[in-house]
Design brief:
One of its GO terms (molecular function) is DNA binding. It is built from 9 helices and 3 strands; from the N terminus they run H-H-H-H-H-E-H-H-E-E-H-H. With about 180 residues, the chain is mainly α. The chain has a 3-stranded antiparallel sheet.
């Protein structure tokens, strides 16, 4: 039985047990693990992040089709709900939507009456986004669908694992922000 199979089938009572069952971090680098990057990619955090995000997006796309909503629109609705008055640039970053796609998405959402685009009074070059009552209502109908998918996705996790993963991923995001080149 491979190390991956062993870790996949361990009975885990809680997040601490799950963490203890993981291989040491040094074994998850190409230097500490024999083989080519392709052979060890499945052991890396970012491989699994993209696999999970892609699978969830496909499930949400199927579920949201009945509402006439695309996943990018869902992300924008949620982002603007969390951060009312956010700029297009901030929304693109927070919703993880390409800025060009975001502009087209926001145009369609404004035509549908889900949000408004407002000039920033302090800087007319900046557009601020706000949900309309229709947009808030739509978000309220979509949220239970997304929550059901999220709960199903996390059903097999040991107690505390989802919270631990959230904490860990926030730290990874902070690390990426530190690693980002500064623009002058």
């Amino acid at each position: 039985m491979s190390a991956e199979q062993t870790h996949d089938h361990l009975p885990m009572a809680d997040a601490a047990t799950a963490v203890e069952a993981l291989p040491p971090q040094e074994e998850l680098t190409s230097e500490g693990h024999p083989g080519t990057p392709a052979e060890v990619a499945h052991s890396h955090l970012f491989f699994w992040i993209t696999q999970v995000a892609g699978r969830r997006d496909r499930l949400l796309a199927q579920e949201f089709r009945a509402f006439g909503v695309r996943v990018a629109e869902w992300r924008v609705l949620l982002s603007v709900s969390i951060r009312p008055g956010t700029s297009l640039k901030e929304t693109a970053e927070y919703a993880t939507v390409d800025p060009t796609t975001l502009t087209r998405t926001v145009d369609g959402m404004a035509r549908s009456g889900w949000l408004t685009r407002n000039p920033d009074p302090a800087d007319l070059r900046i557009t601020r986004l706000e949900l309309t009552d229709t947009g808030r209502d739509l978000l309220g109908r979509l949220w239970p669908v997304a929550e059901r998918v999220n709960l199903q996705a996390c059903a097999g996790l040991p107690d505390g694992a989802a919270q631990l993963m959230c904490h860990g991923l926030r730290e990874v995001l902070r690390g990426l922000e530190k690693a980002a080149p500064t623009h002058r």
